[in-house]
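> forwarded from #structure-qc
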């Protein structure tokens, strides 16, 4: 295994330790689309701190994770869930939802962006997120 891969794997192992706390926070439902009874994974929302931090993670399903990273595979209907999740009280979920909803070229998404309200630091966070092409 290369150094880079080893480091990446070590990071994933550390993040997986948050699974229990995130299961509690999420109620075992995807924190974006609220799917339940599905496998959920820990995903870091950039820019993540040097030491893995639970507060910079979201707990989401494979479908959300996949579409998050691939603009071409984004199903706009799937992301209607963002109209709810942009109001999350968890900054990582809120920032990620705000970034994502801005990427959806639909009227409901534009309306959601216009109506949304978030703390300045969450807005700034949303501005720095970029999952496209990762
Ligand atoms: Zn999901």
């Amino acid at each position: 295994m290369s150094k880079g891969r080893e480091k990446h794997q070590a990071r994933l192992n550390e993040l997986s330790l948050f699974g229990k706390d995130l299961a509690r926070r999420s109620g075992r439902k995807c924190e974006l689309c609220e799917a339940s009874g599905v496998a959920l994974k820990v995903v870091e929302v950039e820019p993540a701190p040097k030491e893995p931090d639970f507060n910079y993670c979201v707990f989401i399903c494979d479908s959300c994770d996949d579409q998050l990273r691939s603009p071409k595979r984004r199903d706009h209907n799937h992301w209607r869930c963002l109209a709810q999740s942009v109001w999350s009280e968890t900054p990582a979920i809120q920032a990620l939802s705000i970034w994502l909803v801005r990427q959806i070229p639909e009227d409901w998404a534009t309306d959601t962006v216009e109506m949304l309200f978030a703390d300045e630091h969450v807005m700034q966070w949303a501005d720095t997120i970029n999952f496209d092409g990762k």
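QC bot note: Strands lie at 40-44, 57-61. The two ends are 21 Å apart (CA to CA).
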